Amino acid sequence: MAIIGDLSLDLDKISSDTMADVVEMRLRDYFKKKSFKPGDALPKEQELADALGVSRNVLREALSRLRMLGMVETKKKRGMILSSPDVLGGFERVLDPLIISADALQDLFELRLILEMGLADVLYLNLNDQSIHELEMIANNEKKKNKEIFRIANEIAFHGKLYEMAGNDTVKRFQHMLLPVFGFVLQLENEFVSGKVTHLDLVEILKSGTKDDFRNGMYDHLKPHFDRLEAIKK
Amino acid sequence: MAIIGDLSLDLDKISSDTMADVVEMRLRDYFKKKSFKPGDALPKEQELADALGVSRNVLREALSRLRMLGMVETKKKRGMILSSPDVLGGFERVLDPLIISADALQDLFELRLILEMGLADVLYLNLNDQSIHELEMIANNEKKKNKEIFRIANEIAFHGKLYEMAGNDTVKRFQHMLLPVFGFVLQLENEFVSGKVTHLDLVEILKSGTKDDFRNGMYDHLKPHFDRLEAIKK
Q1: Half-sphere exposure of A175 toward its Cβ, with a 13 Å CA cutoff?
Q2: Residue A210 and which of A20, A127, A129, A169 are 20 to 30 A apart at CA?
C-alpha cells in the first residue's frame, strides 16, 4: 500500500502562471469553436471566470495577454469584443537582440536576406515611375561619404521604401523590425561593408532592367552578407 | 471660472488594461536599461509593484504577458528570471485566418510567395545528396491522383523540408504558420491549381540545376498564385 507522506513534496503547487496558460488556451479554443468574428461581443468577465471555474484574477491575466496581442478590446458601453489582432505585435515585442538566442539571431539574419531576394516578383507587379523617383531621392539623400558602410537608417529608409513599393505594409513593417537585428549581428562580426551594387545602382535597374536583373543586382548588393553565411556554413 | 460638475462624466477611469500596458512597457524598458541578459534573476513581484506604485494584480497581468512571450520564466528556488523569448510565439497565437483583417491576410499571402522565391540562395549554401533524397521521398509520397490540387498537408511537408534543408528552423516554423493562412485565402478564391512545375520537378532541378534554375522553377510552380496577384493589382 502506498504511504502518503508530505504532500507538498510530491505534488507541485499549480502556479497562477500555469493557470493563465491554460485559461488563455481555453479562451482561444472557445473563440474558434464558436466562430467569433472581430466585433463580436464576448461574455462578461465574471461569466467567463465562472464557466472556467477559475478566479477572476487568473482570468484577467489571460485576457490581458489576448489584449496585448490585439485579439480582445474593451469598448465603452459594449464591453469586451473580439478584434483583429496586430499580426506582428507579439513579434515586435520580443525582437531585442540582447535577449534573443544566438541561433534565432542567425535565423533572423538569413530571413532578412531571403525576403530581400524574394521581393522582386511582387515588386515588379507594382512598379511605377513616381515611386521609383521617390526611391531615387532616398538613395540620393544618403550621405555621399562613408557610403561603403552599412547604416541602419539608410538601409531602413531604402529597403523599407522597396517594400512599400511592393504594396505590402506587413512585410514593410516586418523588415523594419528585422533590420536592427541584422545590424546587430553585423556589429558582432565587425563587418559593415556593402556590396559593389549600391542603392543608386538598384534604382537604375528598376528604371530599365528586368526583375531578373533586379534580383541579380540585389544579390550583388547583399553579396558580403552571403559570403559571410557561406563562410559560417562551411 | 470653470464649473466642476460630475467628475465621472469628464474623466475616464484608468482601466487595469491601460495600467497593464504601461507596466508592461516600463518593465521592458527597465530590462533594456539595465541590460538584463537571459538567465538573470529579476526583482521580486512585491518589489517591482512597490517601485512602480501599482497593485500586485496589475503587475501580475503585465508579467503574465511577458511570460506568454517567453521573456520571463519562474524557476524553482531561483524565482523569476529573464529568458530568451520565443521569437514566433506571439505571431503564432494570432495567426487565425478568421480574425485577421483582409489586408493582413493578403499581405501574409504575398509574404509566403516572397519567402519561397527568396529561399534559393540560402538553400544552395546547404544542399547535400542526403537531404535531396529525403525531399524526393516526400514528393513521391504525395498521392499521384489530384496532384494538380493545392493540398496544405503536401505543401507543408514539401516546402517545410526545403526550409529545413536551408538550415533555418525559424523560417521553417514561420512558413509552417503561414501555409494554412495561404490555403485559407485560396479557398476563398476557389483557386487550387498548382503550376506546371511539380514538387518532383523541383527535386530534379535541385539534383542538377543551378540556383537560378531552381528560382525559375519555383516561380513556375507558384505561377497561378502570381497570376492571381497580378489580376488583383490591376
Answers
A1: 28
A2: A169
Q: How many CA atoms lie within 13 A of B43 on its CB side?
A: 13
Gap from A152 CA to chain B (nearest CA, Å): 20
Out of A84, A110, A174, closest to residue B100 by CB = A84
Report the domain count for chain A.
2
Contacts of residue B35 in chain A, CB cutoff 8 Å? 98
pLDDT block averages, 10 residues each, chain B of length 234: 77 76 94 92 95 94 94 88 92 89 91 95 94 94 62 84 93 88 77 80 96 96 90 78
Identify whether residues B127 and B18 lie together within a single domain: no
**pTM, to two decimals:** 0.87
- Residues of chain A contacting B226 with CB distance shorter than 8 Å: 121, 125
A61, A82, A103 — which closes off a domain? A82
Q: Give me the sign of the Cα torsion angle A161, A165, A170, A175.
A: negative
Hey, how many other C-beta atoms are within 10 angstroms of the C-beta on B95?
18
Kindly report the nearest CA distance between residue A95 and chain B, in angstroms. Answer: 7
pLDDT tens column, A58-108: 999 999 999 999 999 988 888 899 999 999 999 999 888 889 998 999 999
